[in-house]
Amino acid sequence: MAFRWQPDFEQLVDEHQSMVFSLALRMTGDRGLAEEIAQDVFLALDRNLGMMESPLHALAWLRRVTMSRSTDALRRRRVRGVHMMVEMNENHCAQGEEASSPLAVRVERLLATLPEAQRAALVMRYQEDLTPEEIAATLGAPVATVKSHLQRGLKLLRAKASTHLQEYIRGA
Amino acid sequence: MDDFERELREAMRRQAAPANLKPRILKRRQERRGRRFPRLWIFQWGPATAALAALVVVVVIVAAGAGGFLMKRDAEERRKGEEAKQQVFTALRIANRALEQMNVQLEQQNRKAE
Q1: What is the C-alpha separation between A58 and B79, in angstroms, rounded?
Q2: Is pTM, for the whole model, over 0.80?
Q3: Among A34, A83, B25, B112, which one is most buried in terms of CB atoms within 10 A?
Q4: Contact between B15 and A168 using a beta-carbon 8 Å cutoff
Q5: Chain A residue closest to B22 (CA)?
């Protein structure tokens, strides 16, 4: 008889809360909203706990749902007429800046100015260290599209970094 | 991967979640479960009171069952006793009739002998 994985909800929260929170924060640029999204994602996990087949499955599920919820939150804000870029620049890491390095803070500010799809691809690539194929599976997008977003996003970020982050970035 | 990407990866390491995130998740989870399973009055009692209530319910059910069984057994015994009594009466009636016949025959023989 095959061993069936028994997920422990609190253990999953312990293991993945920083991943979920960081993804939501970098996608929305708002700590409060990121916390709300993280809570919603873990409550959804609790509802679907019986479907989780393995730790890797749970991790991939959490990434996918976090990205989806973050995108929904951004869309709702657009519908409400909030100018995201202004709000993101005001809110981004407002409370967490003291905990992050100056470079990280500036990179995140620049990241917040990228188009949503490019930002999602870059966050998955450089925060989660995923391959384009894994990003495509997580976001439900074609691999070619993900590669395109990565290239364009990186190019745009380099251009912004070359003017804003000269003192930090050697290769820009 | 060039220097820029390495710097990017370094800058984009996961941030620690707020310390109160997990307690808030667990609290909301508890609240949601409370809403999903409305608390009946019995579940609002403490475990000792609930156990005592459950014990009382079990005792009442067992007592009712036992009482019903005993009543049914008594009724059965009473019915059997009644049947036995009727059989004895029938036997007595038959014996009485036989004795009366014998008595009649004896009287007839006595009269002949006189």
Answers
A1: 71
A2: no
A3: A34
A4: no
A5: A13
